[in-house]
Amino acid sequence: MAEKPTGGTPNVGGTYDFDGTRNEYGIALANKMQLILRQPTSDMTTFLTNEDYQGDFFNIGDVVKIAKPDPNSVNVVAGAKDCNRPELRELSFESTVMVIDKSMKYAFQICDIVEAEGKWNYESGALDLAAQNMRIKHNLETANLVVNSTEIPRIGTPANPIEVNGDTFYSKVLVGAYAHLRANGAITADGRYTFGSNPEEQKRTRAAIFMPEEGLSLMLTSKWVTDRFTPDADDVLRTAGYKEVLGMSIEFEPSLSQEAADHITVAGLAEGAFAVVIGTNNTVTRAGKVLKPDVLRSHEKYADNYFGLEIYGEKVASPNSCVVAFCKLADGAAPEKPTV
After folding, report:
1. Alpha-carbon distance 45 to 219, whole Å?
2. Is 215 helix (H, G, I), strand (E, B) or coil?
3. Confidence of residue 67 (pLDDT cuts 50, 70, 90)
């Protein structure tokens, strides 16, 4: 990152001109934030969203056109050997638009005395914290977008969730979602997705199963684990083999439980119900841009005030690349809660 300029003089409003280097330095700060926000992790913004149209806009209010191929528009025919050509279908695309209509802001203040006495790079560290906190909010926003979408296929409903124990959770929810995704061409037999993001970028290509604590506890008590010979079951746990089911990655997402401090909000969600989301990153298309932060000299303290802004848009672009299950623990299936 560019070195912070020093010795500048304040402009109108308190921003600094740093001898003509302010623009370069501001771009470096924005790029740092952008890199942290796009860094792949095991959250929903990584596994369920793509940024295929990143950079296709300039300002808030811009419209981005999204085109996704229909996997079923490619005709495949199996049968006896003959010389007849199969029916020709025109490759079709589902086209929709996404509006850049959202923003996320951050702000922090660095006091001159703290900056002089400390051994920490306060500015860089504060930008890291801001980006990580923004990432958490983006993750919850994506979760709410997906679970509230009426376009995405559902197992159960918010008002009438499917009752599950360890075994039915696996057979009805996970297998059911896997079968739906395969039938619609969203994934291959090994749980990977079949179309979408630029292969030259380091994108995750495996579908993911997001579940809260209730779902993870059910998985470890299901026949998927207990019906194995003891050495095999032990090996599954020892090697973290339970992190993958039907070729799809298992990921922990606490916000899908109503008992989490920060959780999804779904109208009419039954008491005790939780959500499970299974899908690929073709599900949601997102495009965003972090703008250069304003650094203003405080009029009240010997300190610099930092104000930052990200503009973005987010849309469910491929509903059949995802399944949302609304579940409720059956009688006697509730796992013992750990104490902290």
Report:
1. 24
2. helix
3. low
